[in-house]
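Retro notes - structure team

What went well: the batch runner handled both jobs without manual restarts.
What didn't: labels got mixed up in the shared folder, which is why I'm recording both outputs here explicitly, each with its sequence directly above its tokens.

Job 1
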Amino acid sequence: IKALARAAKTLHSKLS
């Protein structure tokens, strides 16, 4: 699902 991939990317950005 695109939403999941998008959420993962957002989370990664916040973590960085």
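Job 2
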Amino acid sequence: AAAVDAFTDAIGTRAPPLAVVESVEPHPVPALNDGSGFTIRPSAPAGTGRTLIPPDTATCDACLTELADPADRRHRHPFITCTHCGPRFTVVTGLPYDRPRTTM
């Protein structure tokens, strides 16, 4: 329970610079013990959510460091971004922000 409380607090106090957290409303949910394991499900279509795509911003210092480092797997990657400086408004065609909804 303490870890969940700490995580809930961090959502509002340690969000990435471009994030705007208006409220955090935790709700208990029953545990699934059906043995199905972990799965990644397709995103639901954008509905009544109020998620915004941030405007394009300058590439952050951490991304610039990766971009310039020949040993980094993102070296010279032209579309480098992270949670501090992206995603780019110019490549997102809709929400939720998934690969099929980007122009890359």
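One thing worth noting from job 2: The chain has a mean pLDDT of 84.
We'll revisit the folder naming next retro.
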